UniProtKB/TrEMBL annotation:
Record-given protein name: GNAT family N-acetyltransferase
Keyword check for Transferase: yes
Domain of life: Bacteria
A GO MF label: acyltransferase activity, transferring groups other than amino-acyl groups
The keyword Nuclease is annotated on this UniProt entry: no
Record SUPFAM superfamilies: Acyl-CoA N-acyltransferases (Nat) (SSF55729)
Keywords assigned: Acyltransferase, Transferase
Residue ranges constituting the N-acetyltransferase domain according to the UniProt record: 6-173
Amino acid sequence: MAIENLQFRKAAEADINSIWKIIQQAIERRKLDGSSQWQDGYPNPETIRQDIENAHGYVLSAGENIIAYCAVLFNNEPAYDHIKGEWLTNGDFLVVHRVAVSGEVAGQGIATGLFKLVEDHAVANNIFSIKVDTNFDNVPMLKILEKLGYTYCGEVYFRGSARKAFEKVLKPG
């Protein structure tokens, strides 16, 4: 599926059911992969609702069908203030959370394409750093981050658990 034919846009309240279905599929894939990520009731429909209310939720759609979801936050992740390690930069940054791809298109490079669109979105908003974290056992996400040139910076902690933290410095325009 060519990423050029997809639309990256802010999620709307009308998208919640489609997004939640995709999140549930991703939760099940993490479980089948043997990952502990997302196996504790998070994320949930309220998380998605809050993302949308706070203008953090974004979807990737092919025509009318939503095929991926993520939360995008500007300069807003308190857990990142306490990294065991060191970020590459200390200026403005964009955070990517809750990346999930529909089971119908999983394994087709959609998450990689989603990250590229998020990077384009950051540059368009004059933000040249993307920070992201993932579970130590989320192998698909770790492979995507490696492929896209994200640098491992250390560990951050969410809900009492250590997570691998990465950053990528982007080039202007």
